[in-house]
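[step 3/7] fold_predict: job queued, chain A
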Amino acid sequence: MRLLLCVLGFLTVMVGLTGCGSTGSEESATYVGTEPGTAVLVQWTASPDGALNGSVRLTRPAVGGDDLVANDSMSLSGRRSGSSVSLTVDYGLGLTETWAGAIEGADLILDVPQDDGTLQELRLSGSDVGTYNAAVQDITAAAATERDSVVAAQAELENEQAAERAASDARNREVETQTQQQEAYEAVVNAGAQLTARGDLQDLVDAVRSSFASHEQSLAVAEAAACQDRGDPVTAVGDAYTVFLDDVSSVTTMVDVVRGHADEVDADVAWADEAGVEKDLAPFLDEAGEARSVADSAEQEVAQLDEAAIATNDAAYALDFC
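[step 4/7] structure written:
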């Protein structure tokens, strides 16, 4: 409580008459002091011998919590001798403090000790509880206005922060989108580069054609050797067929590879479209379609050659040898 009184400073004098009343031989007095943000009420009852008993009440804006104002009440005792007064303020828990002062007309002037050892003059005016209540209402209204201002400022700050976060999120999403678009386009390009395997497939088909021709040639040799003592020419046909099958196997594998690359191009183009890539992706799809056509043609041609090779084998084994 002492610290709260230390910040009062010089209080504005409230003009009014000293509020005094008497009950029997005792007299009561009320003094009020105010300044912006603080109200002080000092009340006492004076005995004929000058003994004083009463209270000090302080109201100020609350710091934190839900209440708008904070109220502190302390009991006081003391003595008046002529215009001089000496008050002992009881803060509780055995902590007391002495305020010396004087009554000047309707005013009560007190010297309040400060933490640094100096005295701070506290000037109060003889008044009534109504004056104090009015001051409390003013303090409460000012505290409400201040709290509303703080709440509004906090809301504005939160809105600004939310807007900044939204803008930052938008920038991050834009960067993420651009990165995703770049990655998707690069995936399309890389998948498209793999379609060159269709050239390797064509080379393998040429190898199948060559081995098929050799196989056919071995049959011609076998037919020429019929009824002649030239060993077993059927073996040469079988050997040629083995070479042919190896080449067919290579073609079959490469057909699957080419189709896989074409499927990869399709998938990556779909990803790029979903990511919003604005570059022309149609050429990649066209190239993938061409690669599938090459694979389909190779597969069909090899299948036909394989059927013919089987017929060649059958013809070789049907030959009669003397």
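[step 5/7] annotate
Helices lie at 2-6, 129-193, 197-224, 234-275, 282-317.
The chain has a mean pLDDT of 87.
exit 0
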